Description:
single chain, alpha+beta, 39% helix
Amino acid sequence: MRNKIIFALSIIGILAGLVSAYVFGIEKKAQPPVFAPVSSPYQSAIYSNGIIESEQQAGENINIFPEVSGPITQVFVHEGQKVTAGMSLLTIDESVQKATTEQLRLQAEAALELLHELKAQPRQETLAVAKAQVGQAASNLKAARDQYDKRRASYDLDQKSISQDVVDTARDAVEQAVTSLQVAVKQYDLTKAGAWSYDIINQRKQYEAAKQAYQAAHALLQKYTIKAQADGVVLSVNATAGSYVSSLGTYDTYTQGVDPLVVMGGSQKYLAVRCYVDEILVAHLPSPAHINAQMSIRGSDIKVALEFVRVQPYVSPKIELSNQRQEKVDLRVLPVIFRFQKKNLTMVYPGQQVDVYIGQK
Length: 361
């Protein structure tokens, strides 16, 4: 009985081995590729990595940073929205600066009113008072002189009728009245002459200084509303209402870095491709008049002919694509810029990496 069991198990093992050998020996056909591998369309070409970006006459995208700091109160745009130059993008809390601007405006207006007051002198009511004071001083002089004449006449007739002291006191009163009249006349002339020219010049300077301070505060107040400086498309908005921003930008919790407040691109009719050619291949670049290039969109079979725009004549470390500030190998590249029409390319966006072959016409 025991031998039969061992013999049965041996047969089962042999059958299992044969079945396993058959199953594992079946050849499986490889799945076809999702898209054709990138290949050069030219007989002789230079390969380079590239990145799609908005078309600009110079530079890359439009990075908008605020010139002031504070919490955001309102956001008026969203990603993908077309904007025009001068359009408001968002606002920053302006309560303190608004009050400061209003204070400086009132100070400038007060300085201006004081300048008008100096120019309008003499005031007719003030001049009338000064003129009345001259008349009063003249009347006092006449009264003092009459008193002196009477006492002098009495003394001349009879020296015992009035004392010499009374006569001298009357004469002194006349002299005082003469002096008072002279002072009143000079005061009248001073009032009639109006404000001193130096006072007017000084007040004008103070008004100009206050006006300039108000204009500076008003200009700074306008900075609390971030506006588009050119026509284009909003590529990204990196802050929302309530978040704090500064002149450095806004803090990104994902990258733990600082980003621009808003990133804008140019018109989406054309897009640019910035290619990075290895420095050892720069000598093999065709002349600008004979450059041909073709772009392949990664993950698809789409190939797009490129139009040469310019060469950025500066070989720099290849950190644009890798974002590595320090590399073990200092690989340097020359940026070459092309452009293409976005028509019928709905799934192409700035920021995509592409493969580019640069050939010769």
